[in-house]
Amino acid sequence: MSAAPVLCFDLGGTRMRAALLAPDGTRLAAVEAPTPAREGVGAVLDGLCALALRCRDTGVAPQAAGLCAPGPLDAPGGRMLAPPTLLGWRDVPVSALLGERLGLPVLLENDANAAAVGEQLYGAGQGAGSLVFVTVSTGIGGGVIVDGHVLRGRGGLAGEIGHMKIAEHSTDCACGAQGCFEALASGTALGWRAARVMRARKDGTPPPSGRDVIEAARRGERLARRLVAEHGRWLGRGFANLLHLYAPDVLVMGGGLANGFDLLEPAIRAEIARSAMPSYRETPLLSAALGDAAGLVGMAHIVRQSLPDLGRERKLG
Asked: For residues 289-304, b (16+ Cβ closer than 10 Å) or e, as one string?
């Protein structure tokens, strides 16, 4: 087995991360930075390359790289098609562009698929043959593992659960539609909901993020707790749909808003009890065990499976 590490990137709408991972999963380096999501392709590529340089300061040279990123995307073709959370990213051959700058082969994968693989192999879903991973952050993404294999669908487009409709109306979703799960239940949506209430109060308070609302609820602030309960109901409605669609052994919630899982969970479970048929209500609902490292860990596994000379791991997908 080769001892070559893998350089992995997790590109989100708010933060981007990079890690150098050894064959046994040890992180030799891990760095992150804000994503310049509104500044176009060049600025994001510059940021990813800067993270790569910081990882390479360890003196250990990777032989391949992997990028997990928001969909929709064409993973085999290495192209990001039109991610709603990144401005100007339309049909971008990101694997080729990043690979040329790094001097490495770069594999592309949907971020939620990579996180689902990480959690199924090493996290909350260990031992589960079927799993749905939901990342709740700037947007909402999904990775689905059915009978031990990643569900990819036509053109690899399966799993865009953030854009299933769970209501008739909402604020406009980043995809241009209304009523999307993402528009109603993402971390961004929680921040917007709080901002609307604060504007109504006209107290000059700056608009919060979803994380801000979670932290305020954890401190016991009444308004924040009410907003978190309402948000949990929207999450529960979407989760109930996913249970009906995929009947997984376990449903795992990750992403930035998972840091408030304990606060959101009662309302999520109450909504599942109202919306899901009895046979689906007992499905374990868990917080991601790997936290924000799930995508990086899963991506490293995917790269090693795709490039056998880097060493074999447990097979999935």
From this structure: bbebbbbbbbbbbbbb
CB 144 within 8 A of CB 132: yes
- Contact at 8 Å (CB) between 113 and 123? no
Who's near 233: CB < 8 A, 6+ residues apart? Answer: 267, 268, 270, 271
Do 141 and 68 contact (CB within 8 A), yes or no?
no
Query: Hunting for tokens 């840091």 — which residue is that?
Result: 259
Question: Tokens 């689906």 label which residue?
Answer: 280
What is d(CA 8, CA 152) in angstroms, rounded to the nearest whole number? 21
Q: Which residue type is seen at 119?
A: E
SS3 121: helix
Q: Where in the chain is the domain with CATH 3.30.420.40?
A: 6-114+292-310, 126-289
Q: What is the Cα–Cα distance from 94 to 78, expressed in whole angstroms?
A: 6
Contact (CB, 8 A) for 136 and 311: no
Q: Which of 45, 58, 46, 75 is closest to 19 using CA atoms? A: 58
Task: Say whether 216 sits in a helix, a strand or coil.
Answer: helix
Query: Structurally, what CATH architecture does the domain formed by 6-114+292-310 represent?
Result: 2-Layer Sandwich (3.30)
Side chain identity at residue 131, one-letter code: L
SS3 133: strand
Q: What is the pLDDT along the chain (317 residues), one digit of tens a residue?
A: 346 899 999 998 889 999 999 887 788 999 999 999 999 999 999 999 999 999 988 777 898 999 999 888 999 999 999 888 899 999 999 999 999 999 999 999 999 999 999 999 999 999 899 999 999 988 899 999 999 899 988 877 888 899 999 998 888 888 888 999 999 999 999 999 998 887 755 666 677 899 999 999 999 999 999 999 999 999 999 999 999 999 999 999 999 899 999 999 999 999 999 999 999 999 999 999 998 899 999 999 999 988 765 544 434 44
- Length of the chain, in residues: 317
CATH topology of domain 126-289: Nucleotidyltransferase; domain 5 (3.30.420)
